[in-house]
Specification:
Elements: H1 3-10, H2 13-24, H3 30-61, H4 66-95, H5 102-130
């Protein structure tokens, strides 16, 4: 699988992981259920901005080299956070509550970066595990 193909699929992680968490939420104990709820709410709040970001990223990927795509993935949470802030600011302007929401914007920025880099770490772990030659070596039998 090429680097671009892998990262195209990896862009689905921020949508698939919260969907899975939502499905499993009722089966999980206390703190795990709370984390599942946070994951689900990340899509409720940031889903539309993420789709805008992902479409833009996919369009940008078409002409980029593998190395550039990899660097783009590493910077993706920062770029997504900018898109999220723009979308939330526009929503709050329309809603008329922007002047009361500066603290909540900061909270959303923090969550976007933490969750975003969590997904990048998950994608990079998956890429490392799928890279040829990274399978665990067979144990050497003791003589």
């Amino acid at each position: 699988m090429s680097v671009k193909t892998y990262y195209r699929w990896a862009l689905l992680l921020p949508l698939l992981v919260p969907a899975l968490a939502w499905l499993l939420q009722g089966l999980l104990p206390g703190s795990a259920a709370a984390m599942a709820y946070l994951l689900f709410m990340s899509v409720v709040i940031g889903g539309v901005p993420y789709l805008l970001f992902a479409i833009g990223f996919l369009l940008w990927m078409r002409g980029a080299s593998d190395a550039r795509v990899h660097r783009g993935i590493l910077l993706a949470p920062l770029t997504y956070t900018v898109v999220l802030v723009i979308c939330l600011t526009l929503f709050l302007l329309v809603d008329g509550t922007l002047s009361n929401s500066s603290d909540s914007l900061g909270t959303f920025v923090g969550f976007a970066l933490v969750f975003g880099y969590g997904y990048v770490a998950l994608a990079e772990l998956g890429r490392a595990l799928l890279r040829p030659g990274t399978a665990p070596a067979e144990p050497v039998p003791a003589v």
